[in-house]
Design goal:
The chain is mostly helical. It has seven helices and five strands. The strands form two sheets. Strands 2-1-5 form a three-stranded antiparallel β-sheet. Strands 3-4 form a two-stranded antiparallel ribbon. Helix 2 (28-47) runs antiparallel to helix 3 and helix 3 (83-104) packs antiparallel against helix 4 (112-127). The radius of gyration is 19 Å and the shape is globular. It starts with a helix and ends in an 8-residue tail after the last helix. The mean pLDDT is 85.
């Protein structure tokens, strides 16, 4: 039996989000929140410069925790990322929570993993990549781990408590600035992400040419 593109994409989806769990039934309010959440990710991903094109948006539950997902696929192999590209990746992660806030005037627990990943990117920018203006081109990660009783444990922080507080402050500033930018963008694109969310509530999955047509001119969608 020949392997087709849809088989490869299903394998990618399984690897990223897990098996489909159509047996997991969300109530009407939950499904609506997930639809707007994923629409937020997709619109930021499709209209933010220097991000991978959006391929698919789904509100079909997968795996243990994924209630929906937005799939972006790189167009080429990448070995380096610039500060701007990292910031934009962080912004895509924040798009779901921002869309919830704009739509429902409150946020849900669904953005937990997004916030963890966004914060991790910001912290790496500050402590590993020297991408903080206030802390400068300095690495605050020892890059080493000690072995104790057969288990690896992180080395003690190679900097003072004052620097630790400055790192926390800078990480917070990066995330909050990105959040404000995403909020401004999604307010401007409110009609677009509302249109996408409503379409997802009807069909549950949109991809390729159909998704590009719905998002309209300028959308970076892989068809």
């Amino acid at each position: 039996e020949n392997i087709q593109t849809k088989d490869l994409e299903e394998a990618i989806d399984r690897g990223i989000a897990g098996l489909e769990r159509k047996s997991r039934v969300l109530n009407k309010k939950e499904k609506e929140i997930v639809a707007y959440h994923e629409a937020g990710h997709a619109v930021v991903g499709a209209f933010m410069p220097e991000t991978d094109p959006v391929r698919r948006v789904s509100i079909i539950p997968r795996g243990v925790a994924a209630l929906g997902y937005t799939l972006q696929l790189p167009t080429e192999d990448r070995y380096l990322m610039t500060r701007a590209e990292l910031i934009n990746r962080l912004k895509v992660l924040l798009g779901g929570r921002v869309a919830e806030e704009i739509t429902f005037k409150e946020v849900s627990t669904g953005a937990q993993n997004d916030l963890e990943r966004a914060t991790k990117i910001a912290r790496s920018m500050v402590t590993e990549y020297g991408m903080s203006e206030s802390l400068g081109p300095v690495s605050y990660s020892s890059g080493q781990r000690s072995v104790f009783m057969g288990a690896e444990i992180p080395d003690a922080k190679p900097y003072s408590e004052e620097v630790a507080a400055e790192i926390d402050k800078e990480v917070k500033a990066i995330v909050e600035t990105a959040y404000a930018d995403v909020r401004a963008m999604l307010i401007q694109k409110k009609k677009v992400f509302e249109k996408l969310a409503k379409a997802l509530l009807d069909v549950e999955l949109l991809e390729g040419a159909e998704l590009k047509k719905l998002l309209g001119k300028g959308a970076n969608v892989q068809v």
